[in-house]
Amino acid sequence: MNNRFQKPEKPGTRLRPSDGQPPQGSPLIRLEQVVKAYQTPVGEFVALRGIDLQIGEGEFVAVVGKSGSGKSTLINMITGIDRPTSGDIWVGGTHINDLSEGKMAEWRGRHIGIIFQFFQLLPMLSCVENVMLPMDFCNMFRPAERYDRAMYLLEQVDMADHAHKLPSEVSGGQQQRVAIARALANDPPLLVADEPTGNLDSKTADSVFQLFTRLVAERKTILMVTHDEDLARRVTRTITIADGAILHEAGPQAPSTDGQPDPAIPQLRPA
Ligand SMILES: Nc1ncnc2c1ncn2[C@@H]1O[C@H](COP(=O)(O)OP(=O)(O)OP(=O)(O)O)[C@@H](O)[C@H]1O
Question: Which part of the chain is the ABC transporter domain (predicted)?
């Protein structure tokens, strides 16, 4: 991989326990009894029914389940895009229930990189301008450093040669690579991706997956909703959601009753 642009010296902010008042030894993500109920014209609909979940730093987690099972609702709770009806959520030691709407947006921008199925790049900005946006929004890195950092990240995802094109001038897979660079802009420890390969052909999906694998090796934590069974088999842990509850977990990090790996849980091959 070319490295025409040097990695900027200054790292992004890291999530640390001092950001909030987490329980001792808290994992990166911790949910306790999270319930989400929506009010609908025909009454209350409970989309999440008391989720307990812990995800450690450096895990690569796939969230799977049938359409309507609650996958997006779950990750929207973790990113703070939506609020729980009850229950507690800590991310990196921050009890995010306590954040106001204004604080939530800035906190999210600094600590979580979000990747969407349809990329959601701003069409009137070039690829490099799209990658600079989160740094501008959160006032991260010195203004003079932001362009070089954006170019460095585009290089990491093999898109530096297209930096000055508009999103409409590159392919879907290339747009997703730019979106991944954008998600990395503020150097967040956590990446959350909702169907990141859902709009890509299988070869391009595989290259995006390989990029995620590399990021996990660099100690990023990735939480990914996917319908792609092949990809879900290649992560370190899968969480299956059904009717708003965790039906099943598989992988090396899956909890067991006695603290030892559960022999009944299949050990997935590492990514
Ligand atoms: N704003 C809302 N108001 C009412 N019901 C909602 C709302 N958002 C989601 N739901 C319902 O909550 C349930 C879970 O939705 P969610 O989007 O989390 O499912 P999902 O597993 O991500 O589905 P898919 O795989 O199709 O994206 C669904 O039955 C959905 O209709």
Answer: 29-268
Q: Which residue segment(s) compose the domain that 111 sits in? A: 57-80+100-250
Residue 246 belongs to some domain of the structure: yes
User: What is the helix (H) or strand (E) element at residue 53, kind and residue range?
Assistant: strand 43-55
Residue among 34, 35, 63, 72 whose CB has most ligand 1 atoms within 8 A, to mutate: 72
> What is the Cα–Cα distance from 254 to 95, expressed in whole angstroms?
23
Which residue has the least CA distance to atom 12 on ligand 1?
47
Q: Into how many domains does the chain fold?
A: 1
Query: CB under 6 Å to ligand 1: residues?
Result: 38, 40, 45, 47, 65, 67-73
Query: Could you give the ipTM of this predicted complex?
Result: 0.97
Instruction: Answer yes or no: is 35 within a domain.
Output: no
pLDDT < 70 stretches in the chain: 1-26, 252-271
Give pLDDT tens digits for 109-167.
999 999 998 899 999 999 999 999 999 999 999 999 999 999 999 999 999 999 999 99
**Euclidean distance between CA atoms 241 and 67, whole angstroms:** 10
Which ligand 1 atom is at minimum distance from the Cα of 74? 18
- CB count, 10 Å around CB of 33? 13
Query: Ligand 1 centroid to 208 CA: how many Å?
Result: 26
